[in-house]
Write a structure and sequence with these properties.
Helices cover about 45% and strands about 30% of the residues. The protein is an alpha+beta fold. It has a 6-stranded antiparallel β-sheet with strand order 2-1-6-5-4-3. It starts with a helix and ends in a 6-residue tail after the last strand. It binds adenosine-5'-diphosphate (ADP) and magnesium ion.
Length: about 350
């Protein structure tokens, strides 16, 4: 009986380790790996089988040096260490920032193993940023919807009255004025409709995201001056997404057109697709997402506007409406996805995250 209890508690501990979102690695006193949990495998882009029995400098690659000295120090002193904002290079050659705690594990009165916990810092920043973004979006959407409806209703009355008036007018010259009322009412209604976003019911289908992106590329390419190129960097293995093709085209078109406007007469736009794993959007962790980046080498969103670009009516262009990105964001939100703006290494990125499986973890 006692043995049963003991076994189930070991099993439970194993399960806890396997489901932790932080990476946990264990090294023996000669700095050889004895355990890595699944979060560790994902963070470092390795499989447990492949790195079992390898030494720490083969598994963890820091941008500056290795962790060997710190681990030796912890083993010698028997005291835990914390390294903050450590930059690691993961298997995909991507740089990730982690907080790392190094804890000696004692056997008797001497440390004979090392526990390493790595916590993804970027992801924490990102999660809170995204949650904030989604909250802002929701608040502004509710406000805009309410406002648009309030404006649309009396507009119908205004237009109808102008039409009645026009029928009664005998002097044709005066009809010019009623026409102005009618046209302006139509223009305002049109604007409100666009602000409310697409209202047709979505016709969702399984579709290949590259079909959508190719259409967008061709449309934008036709509008571009000769000095601007659109490059493609697609990962063809991305599974189909379940969405409305026309809506997705609209969402990506708005972003790509902005990129075209940002680069002007000379420049480069790139459409890149990748698979992302375990990506948190808002408070939901998605096992698999498609990440689509529209990258341009223009100047980026001007300082002071970066926080607001996804709000309706926010524009940096004299002839802009400021509706493009807010419509794109609301379309992508419908599929539980998110658009993010970042500036990285001198280029502008609008990254679209689209969950690929609706069964969330
Ligand atoms: N790729 C980009 N590079 C620089 N600025 C951008 C980019 N995309 C959007 N912006 C800025 O965000 C603003 C809002 O974009 P959007 O919502 O599409 O409205 P609009 O294009 O009508 O201005 C733009 O006016 C521009 O200032
Ligand atoms: Mg635009």
């Amino acid at each position: 009986m006692e043995r049963m209890v003991e076994m189930s508690s070991t099993l439970q501990q194993q399960r806890i380790l396997e489901n932790l979102s932080d990476a946990v690695l264990c090294f023996d006193k000669s700095k050889v790996l004895s355990y890595i949990n699944p979060a560790g495998e994902i963070l470092l882009g390795v499989s447990s089988r492949q790195v079992q029995g390898q030494s720490v400098d083969k598994i963890i690659h820091c941008v500056k040096g290795t962790l060997i000295k710190e681990i030796e120090r912890a083993l010698e002193s028997g005291v835990s260490l914390v390294e903050r904002n450590l930059e690691l290079v993961s298997a995909g050659e991507q740089c990730v920032t982690v907080d790392c705690s190094i804890t000696p594990i004692y056997e008797g009165n001497r440390p004979n193993a090392i526990l390493l916990e790595l916590q993804h810092v970027d992801r924490h920043l990102q999660i809170s940023r995204e949650s904030q973004l989604i909250q802002q979006q929701t608040a502004s959407k509710v406000l805009m919807k309410g406002l648009a409806h309030e404006i649309k209703n009396p507009l119908g009355g205004l237009r109808g009255a102008a039409q009645l008036l026009e029928q009664e007018l005998e002097d044709d010259a005066l009809k010019e004025y009623t026409q102005i009322i009618i046209e302006e009412a139509d223009r305002l209604k049109n604007l409100m409709d666009r602000m409310l976003g697409p209202n047709a019911l979505p016709k969702n289908k399984q579709l290949n995201i590259h079909g959508v992106l190719e259409r967008v590329r061709l449309v934008v390419q036709a509008e571009l001056p000769a000095g601007v190129q659109i490059l493609r960097d697609y990962d063809p293995s991305i599974p189909d997404v379940y969405a409305d093709k026309d809506q997705l085209i609209q969402a990506f078109l708005n972003i790509a057109r902005n990129a075209a406007q940002a680069v002007g007469e000379q420049g480069e736009i790139k459409i890149r697709t990748r698979i992302g794993r375990k990506i948190t959007i808002g408070s939901r962790q998605n096992r698999l997402v498609a990440k689509i980046d529209i990258i341009d080498n223009g100047p980026g969103v001007s300082e002071g506007m970066q926080e607001q670009v996804f709000y309706p009516m926010v524009t940096g262009r004299a002839e802009g409406t400021g509706l493009g990105l807010s419509i794109s964001q609301s379309i992508i939100n419908r599929y539980d996805g998110l658009i993010e703006y970042t500036r990285e290494g001198g280029v502008t990125l609008f990254s679209v995250y689209l969950p690929l499986e609706t069964g969330h973890e």
